[in-house]
Amino acid sequence: MAHDDFRPEDLYTGPIDLSGITLDDDGETESEKSEISYDEQRYPARPRRLRPRDQFRAGSVRRVATDPRTANGTNPSYVEWLVRQSMLKDGDVLARQLSGQPAMWRNPYAHPDARRAIETSDVWFTAYPISLITRPGQSFLAALGDDQLWSVFERVGITAIHTGPVKRAGGIAGWLETPSVDGHFDRISTSIDPAFGTEDEFRALADVAENHGGSVIDDIVPGHTGKGADFRLAEMGFKDYPGIYHMVEIPPEDWSLLPDVPDGVDSVNLDPATEKELAGRGYIIGAMQRVIFYTPGVKETNWSATAPATGPDGVTRRWVYLHYFKQGQPSINWLDPTFAGMRLVIGDALHSLGDLGTSALRLDANGFLGVEVSAEGLPAWSEGHPLSHAANHIIAGMVRKVGGFTFQELNLAIEDIRDTAAVGADLSYDFVGRPGYHHALATGQTEFLRLALTTSLELGVQPVQLVHGLQNHDELTYELVHWATRHGDDLFRFRGREISGGELAEEVRADLTESLTGAADFNRVFTQNGIACTTASLIAATRGAARLDDITETDVPAIRDAHLLLCAYNAWQPGVFALSGWDLTGMLTVPSDVVADLLVAGDTRWIERGAHDLLDVDPQATASAAGMPRGRALYGSLPAQLDDPSSFASRLSRILDLRREHGIATATQVDIPEVAHAGMLVLVHRLDNGDPEAEARMQVTILNFSPEATEGTVRSEQLVPQSEVVDAASGETLGRVDDLQSFTVSLPAYGATFLMLEPEEPVVE
Question: What is the tens place of the pLDDT at every residue in 538-582?
């Protein structure tokens, strides 16, 4: 089979009937056994101290007869069916096919290279599979590969599509698949979920994107899987599969310590008392630094206990396993002696890059790849762990080795982003400025945003390393991890006083919660992590709207202006700019009662994921093909917008034209000066493509986050006196930089301007 034609499903021809065939303790059939191994010959001659210890020694061979319909480890057909679906099996097969090939040695891979990644694609469309309205009968992937869509994207200035997770996800219960519990981020297979299309449609999407000068970005999830075939085989104690996960087998004599698992579920979250008891007995390392998605009675710890599971050896086992996120997302162990977790993740990455044709991968939840016991009485070390850095280096290095790049979703302290990015992913999602610019819009004051941006520069994270995004499928986060955790006791100056990082985070959270959800009933708080809303509904709330029906056509121009301000903020600085279909069409949240069944479990984010129609391909559709209800779009479809010069999409295209014409995406940010007006933000850049020795022009981005017009003085030590200040959009000269390295500027409400500084021509004598 040619390497380029490899597809995991080619290996799968359906369940094999292995009734009557005996599995040994390693999961091998007797027919696989040949002559005795070298170890078996030599063991009798070894001193006792060099022989395997009893606690690692498997038992004698067990022969089990079972009904062929049985869905547990006693049925060889069921075990083989799971193996054929497992990601670990796919990863091993693909690795063997690529190993030793010359293509594996053609690209540098040791160091992250943000600017190389940006030159590949600098403006991304972030898709969400279940929310895109397609032509009747058309799949999500076929819709993304539509030539008309890419023609429209070219006109706007979009150069890449991030598909979102489209591989099979969720779990397996018996012989049946169960649905995803986290928007397909609980992956269980390398194959494309038929709900989104086919592998051929994915490859066609990559070809169409290339024809339009674009590329495709996929996802891998190095932190966890779903409860698919790999986890079910791990529960059985089968071969290397337990090594994929942070899971500990609890002996039967201590099952009394574990909670009972009711019928209909496969595991139960441990309460804090049980977690402490098991840690005290040395089974697990106990409490983590925080419990993500903490919900009383649902998730009180990061550990859960499985129901009894019988393996091919006839042994029934119970396990306690780690999950940083939901119970259906068991965490991957990156330092197990089998390195099974690493093999699984690398195989998934190579499949996307080498077989599907993607150019880049998003690393989901990659900051939680190492965990270690701490001093007694302290929580386990689980964030900012060196193993996370090492694992990310391996993943990102492998991706660069085959010619791609990675970006990470790492919502930790700025130092963690800096340290991980030093060896790992080429780009990081912007959790630094994102809460800040929301806070600036909500309050009309940029003080916290300027504090966040200057802190980032001081700590060594340049904006060129970041993906500056508007809305995606997640909540608009306000965890403010940098301030609330690592710097919780440090002092910062804010609003004329010294306060701790923890107090700062609480104050900013309170401002956002009050402004975005206090009066507005169409936005919702999402657990402890953020606010479920769209960019348009966020803006509407800051403008005083209380209900969706309050937002009328007369409100649209101001919402559009504020939305374009946020686009200019993100696009007119170095780094990648990303936006979603919800942004492009100006979607509002969907009414809570329309998605009430999805909100039952407490995940309020469903209100922000309304179905949208980018090309107006099905005007009568009330929902996407996946059943997501259609939301209200303030701006309309992209073709209609591009026919109107005053529309959101048309004005966005002009913002992106300036971005590309002057190369700001790969520039260096050199100053974020103090401002004369509370609602103003000034960003000073050197257009040097990262070369500090090059002769380069200076650029200044000025934004007004206030709903009122403003005028003020811009001053920075980076400005060269007597330089002309030129509006790049109009070509008009607005003035000169004076001898105090300053100039005056006026901005309308929600205004943004892109200025170039032209040095004074030398006098020729």
Answer: 999 999 999 999 999 999 999 999 999 999 999 999 999 999 999
Calpha distance 756→381 (Å, rounded):
47
Within 543-674, residue ranges assigned H as helices are 556-571, 581-585, 596-599, 638-642, 648-661
Cα torsion 728, 729, 735, 740 to 10°: value is: -50
Strand 123-126 to 576-580 pairing: parallel
pTM here is 0.85
Tokens standing for residue 616: 């107006």
pLDDT tens-place string over residues 743-761 = 999 999 999 999 999 998 7
Between CA 501 and CA 118 the distance in angstroms is 33
Q: Collapsing DSSP states into helix, strand and coil, what is residue 584?
A: helix
Q: What is the pLDDT of residues 576-601, one digit of tens each?
A: 999 999 999 999 999 999 999 989 87
- The residue among 695, 711, 688, 706 whose CA lies nearest residue 750 is 706
Closest to 485 in 3D by CA, of 409, 379, 640: 379
Query: How many CB atoms are located within 10 Å of the residue 229 CB?
Result: 25
d(CA 371, CA 380): 7
Helix (H) or strand (E) holding 682: strand 680-686
Q: What is the 3-state secondary structure (H, E, C) of 201-261?
A: HHHHHHHHHHHCCCEEEEEECCCECCECHHHHHHHCCCCCHHHHECEEEECHHHHHHCCCC
Contacts of 50 (CB under 8 A, 6+ apart): none
Rama region for 496: left / alpha / beta (φ>0; ψ in -120 to 50; rest): left
Cα gap 654→303, rounded to integer Å: 50
Of 56 and 412, the one with more pLDDT: 412
Q: How far apart are CA 558 and CA 540, in angstroms?
A: 9
11-18: long-range contacts (C-beta < 8 A, 24 or more apart)?
11/84, 11/90, 11/93, 12/84, 12/85, 15/77, 15/80, 15/81, 15/84, 16/77, 16/80, 16/81, 17/68, 17/77, 18/76, 18/77, 18/79, 18/80
Helix, strand, or coil (residue 607): helix
User: Is the CB of residue 395 less than 8 Å from the CB of residue 365?
Assistant: no
> For residue 500, what are the β-bridge partners?
491
Angstrom distance (rounded) from CA 408 to CA 361: 9
> How far does Cα 375 stand from its chain's mean position?
32
How does DSSP classify residue 51? S
CB environment 562-600: b (16+ within 10 A), e (fewer):
bbbbbbbbbbbbbbbbbbbbbbbbbbbbbbbebbeebbe
Please state, in angstroms and rounded to a whole number, the distance separating the CA atoms of residues 291 and 274.
15
Asked if residue 578 lies in contact with residue 162, where contact means CB atoms within 8 angstroms, the answer is: yes
Q: Which residues, other chains included, contact 654 with Cβ-Cβ below 8 Å and sequence gap of 6+?
A: 729
- Are 701 and 683 contacting, i.e. CB atoms less than 8 angstroms apart? yes
Residue 640 backbone dihedrals phi, psi, to 5 degrees: -65, -40
Cα–Cα separations (whole angstroms), residue 664 to 115, 160, 187, 425, 683 = 11, 18, 36, 21, 11
* Beta strand segments in 475-557, E: 476-477, 491-494, 497-500, 524-526, 530-532
Task: Answer for the pair 738, 749: CB distance below 8 angstroms, yes or no.
Answer: no
pLDDT in tens, 111-137: 999 999 999 999 999 999 999 999 999
**Per-residue exposure over 313-349, b if at least 16 CB sit within 10 Å of its own CB, e if not:** bbbbbbbbbbbbbbbbbbbbbbbbeeebbbbbbbbbb
Pairing of strands 171-173, 303-306: unpaired
The count of other CB atoms within 10 Å of the CB of residue 457 is: 16
